[in-house]
Protein backbone atom coordinates (compact mmCIF):
# COMPACT_ATOMS: atom_id res chain seq x y z
CA UNK A 1 0.00 0.00 0.00
CA UNK A 2 1.29 3.40 -0.88
CA UNK A 3 -0.19 6.84 -0.41
CA UNK A 4 0.27 9.78 -2.71
CA UNK A 5 -0.42 13.48 -2.34
CA UNK A 6 -4.07 13.06 -3.31
CA UNK A 7 -4.55 10.41 -0.62
CA UNK A 8 -2.97 12.68 1.99
CA UNK A 9 -5.12 15.59 0.85
CA UNK A 10 -8.24 13.42 1.20
CA UNK A 11 -7.23 12.07 4.62
CA UNK A 12 -6.45 15.59 5.82
CA UNK A 13 -9.83 16.76 4.57
CA UNK A 14 -11.66 13.90 6.33
CA UNK A 15 -9.68 14.48 9.53
CA UNK A 16 -10.22 18.23 9.26
CA UNK A 17 -6.49 18.81 9.48
CA UNK A 18 -4.91 21.62 7.52
CA UNK A 19 -1.92 20.41 5.53
CA UNK A 20 -0.24 22.93 3.27
CA UNK A 21 0.22 21.95 -0.35
CA UNK A 22 4.00 21.98 0.08
CA UNK A 23 3.75 19.53 2.99
CA UNK A 24 1.63 16.92 1.18
CA UNK A 25 4.59 15.05 -0.29
CA UNK A 26 6.62 14.87 2.97
CA UNK A 27 3.53 13.79 4.89
CA UNK A 28 2.82 11.13 2.25
CA UNK A 29 6.37 9.85 2.65
CA UNK A 30 6.04 9.76 6.46
CA UNK A 31 2.75 7.90 6.23
CA UNK A 32 4.24 5.44 3.74
CA UNK A 33 7.10 4.81 6.16
CA UNK A 34 4.61 4.14 8.97
CA UNK A 35 2.56 1.79 6.77
CA UNK A 36 5.73 -0.02 5.77
CA UNK A 37 6.69 -0.44 9.40
CA UNK A 38 3.23 -1.83 10.25
CA UNK A 39 3.46 -4.24 7.31
CA UNK A 40 6.87 -5.31 8.60
CA UNK A 41 5.35 -6.00 12.03
CA UNK A 42 2.70 -8.22 10.40
CA UNK A 43 5.51 -10.47 9.15
CA UNK A 44 6.58 -11.35 12.69
CA UNK A 45 5.63 -14.89 13.63
CA UNK A 46 3.72 -14.66 16.91
CA UNK A 47 2.30 -18.17 16.91
CA UNK A 48 2.67 -19.68 20.34
CA UNK A 49 3.48 -16.37 21.99
CA UNK A 50 1.19 -15.63 24.91
CA UNK A 51 -0.16 -12.11 25.20
CA UNK A 52 1.82 -10.06 27.67
CA UNK A 53 -1.11 -8.08 29.01
CA UNK A 54 -4.85 -8.37 29.03
CA UNK A 55 -7.87 -8.23 31.28
CA UNK A 56 -8.90 -11.82 30.71
CA UNK A 57 -7.86 -14.30 33.30
CA UNK A 58 -7.24 -11.64 35.92
CA UNK A 59 -8.93 -11.66 39.30
CA UNK A 60 -10.17 -8.35 40.54
CA UNK A 61 -9.13 -7.69 44.10
CA UNK A 62 -11.68 -6.13 46.36
CA UNK A 63 -11.37 -4.36 49.63
CA UNK A 64 -13.73 -4.76 52.52
CA UNK A 65 -16.67 -2.40 52.30
CA UNK A 66 -16.14 -0.56 55.55
CA UNK A 67 -16.08 3.12 56.43
CA UNK A 68 -12.53 4.09 57.25
CA UNK A 69 -12.47 7.89 57.14
CA UNK A 70 -15.90 9.40 57.40
CA UNK A 71 -18.09 11.24 59.79
CA UNK A 72 -15.78 14.25 59.97
CA UNK A 73 -17.53 17.10 58.14
CA UNK A 74 -15.13 19.71 59.50
CA UNK A 75 -12.22 17.97 57.83
CA UNK A 76 -14.14 17.39 54.58
CA UNK A 77 -15.43 20.96 54.38
CA UNK A 78 -12.23 22.64 55.53
CA UNK A 79 -11.50 23.94 52.00
CA UNK A 80 -15.07 24.71 51.01
CA UNK A 81 -15.39 28.31 49.79
CA UNK A 82 -18.89 28.54 51.20
CA UNK A 83 -20.92 26.23 53.36
CA UNK A 84 -24.08 25.99 55.36
CA UNK A 85 -23.84 23.61 58.23
CA UNK A 86 -22.35 20.36 56.97
CA UNK A 87 -23.07 21.09 53.30
CA UNK A 88 -21.30 22.78 50.39
CA UNK A 89 -23.17 25.72 48.88
CA UNK A 90 -23.00 26.49 45.18
CA UNK A 91 -24.27 29.46 43.19
CA UNK A 92 -27.67 29.12 41.59
CA UNK A 93 -27.28 28.25 37.91
CA UNK A 94 -30.91 27.81 36.83
CA UNK A 95 -33.70 30.31 37.48
Oligomerization state = single chain
Low confidence ranges: none
- Kindly name the structural category: mainly alpha
For the record, give the distance between the C-alpha atoms at the N and C termini, rounded to a whole number.
59 Å
Number of discrete helical segments: 3
Radius of gyration: 28 Å
Identify the strand order in the major beta sheet: 1-2
Assess the beta-strand content as a share of residues.
under 5%
Shape: flat
Biggest sheet architecture: 2 strands, antiparallel
Overall pLDDT level: 89
**Quick one: how many beta strands?**
2
What percent of residues adopt helix (DSSP H or I)?
Answer: 25-40%
Order of helices and strands: HHHEE
Outline of this structure?
This protein has 95 residues and is mainly alpha-helical.
Account of the 3D structure:
The chain is built from three helices and two strands, in the order H-H-H-E-E. It has helices spanning 5-15, 24-42, 73-76; strands at 83-84, 87-88. Helix 1 (5-15) packs across helix 2 (24-42). The longest helix is centred in the middle third of the chain and has 19 residues, at 24-42. The chain is flat and about 65 Å long. The mean pLDDT is 89.
Amino acid sequence: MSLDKNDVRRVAFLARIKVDEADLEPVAQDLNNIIGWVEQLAEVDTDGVAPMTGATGMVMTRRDDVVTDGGDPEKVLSNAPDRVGDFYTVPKVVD
